[in-house]
Amino acid sequence: MTTSWVRLWAVASLTLKEALRRRIIFFVLLLFAVALQISAAFFPSLNMIGRLRVMESHSLSITGLFTAIAVLFLAAFSLPGDFEQKRVYYLASKPLSKPTLFLGRLLGFSILVTLFIASMGLITVGYIRIVKLLSGDAFPALVAYPRLTASEFEAVKGQPIPANPDKLFALGGGEATLIWHFNGLRAADFPDRISVLAKIQIASPTDGYRSSGAVRFRVLNHELKRQSEKILPQLNTNEEAEFDISRDILGTGGDLSIGVSCLDSDGLVAGVRNSVVIYHRSANFELNFARGLTLALLQSLLVTALTLMASTVLSAPISVLLGITLYIMGNLHGYVLEGARDIDQTLDQIKAAQGTEKGEQMHTPEDLPPWVLRLSTLSSRAVLKIVPDFKRFDFSLWLLKDRAVSWEELGEAAAGVAPHFLVLTLLGVLIMSFKDFG
User: Fold this and answer.
1) Residue 315 and residue 297 share a domain
2) pLDDT (tens digit, 9 = 90+) per residue, 232-248?
3) How many angstroms separate the Cα of 189 from the Cα of each of 100, 147, 274, 279, 283?
């Protein structure tokens, strides 16, 4: 067992040394630092908050781009080079097992990607801190607000949605209300004004296309009998509604309830436990940035595993193309899924209207035969089941809104990557076990 670990680490060390010897990593890091400075060209036309957002979004974009370039080309050409030159046999006195070669390469590239992303993160944070220092007090504070989800979630005079028991709904026009209970809050953990964020689904039991309405938010402390109310006359479904309340409403007990009800008699509101959250005091910006870059690392590890696995049987250029395909499909996951849903809805409407005058007038997009579109959506959904949604790794969804990445969100992202990473690793080991080096 010890010998296997030694050989595994020997291959991983060789991988790191080869990458450093080629100096491509240092070259890419230098290009990254130069590209990061491009954001300064937009400073004259932006206020201080705009400058911060440009730096943040620009840094994340080029971090993803440069990481993908480095990982794809290093991983794709590694094993094919091993097969051709047989250089790995010099690592130990005894022959090196084929699975150990693959696992060692994967370990080496995983460490390399981690160091690479960490280096770009340090460069980015240093750049932002320097700009803040030179800009003075006018520059906004670097903050990251953790979000607190409710301890309990219930529907008063409402009920669960049959297809999803975790989601509750309450009909509008009456006393039906969705209520989120927050317990054990400490006033010292919050600023003077507590921010509340809600993302509620709005619909209608009689109109399938209804997606907006008037909503009332009511914040209540039962112990102190204090309450605060916020009415939004026009809120779209799943639109983020943010408002603030006084910290004094917490009192000493620290229990708070937030109720949401629909004011339209023909509407309804629906939500889950994390549909309403409240913000803590800001966490450390640098620590949150590191946590956010871990999301980018998980995405890069998945691309690395696919590219390296593909290189066991395919040429390096084809392996690069497969890695690029995964990267693109993962980032377009949401758009493809939404398009498939729209096509399904159109086809269902045409099917329901067949034999009527309205049905004769309805056409599919581009006047394509319905079976072609149906086949397209089926194949798209099959691909999407294999490819994970890379949106869960998009740190900008947190960073640009000053939100902290929670350990729970990080764990969910890791859990989403783990099965795919494990399958790709097992495939690579299996292929290498039967591969003839020649």
Assistant:
1) yes
2) 999 999 999 999 998 88
3) 50, 12, 20, 9, 11
Q: How many CB atoms lie within 10 A of CB 265?
A: 9
Indicate which CATH number applies to the domain containing 204.
Answer: 2.60.120.260
- Which residues are CB-contacts of 429 (< 8 A; sequence separation ≥ 6)? 99, 102, 103
Quick one: 78 and 170 in the same domain? no
Using DSSP bridges, classify how beta strands 212-221 and 201-203 pair: parallel, antiparallel or unpaired: unpaired
Instruction: Measure the CA dihedral 400/401/406/409, to 10°.
Output: -70
Degrees to nearest 5, angle at CA 279 with 277 and 283 = 135
pLDDT tens, position by position, 264-278: 988 999 999 999 999
> For residues 88 and 14, is the Cβ–Cβ distance under 8 A?
yes
Class of residue 184 by CB neighbours under 10 A (exposed 0-12, middle 13-18, buried 19+)? exposed
Transcribe 381-423 into DSSP letters. Answer: HHHHHHS--GGGG-THHHHTTTBPPPHHHHHHHHHHHHHHHHH
124 and 59 Cβ atoms separated by less than 8 Å: yes
Please tell me the pTM assigned to this model.
0.82
Question: Degrees (nearest 5) of the Cα angle 154, 156, 159?
Answer: 70
* Count of structural domains within the chain: 2
Among residues 231, 255, 279, the one where a domain terminates is: 279
Secondary structure (3-state) at 217: strand
Report whether 168 contacts 187 (CB < 8 A). Answer: no
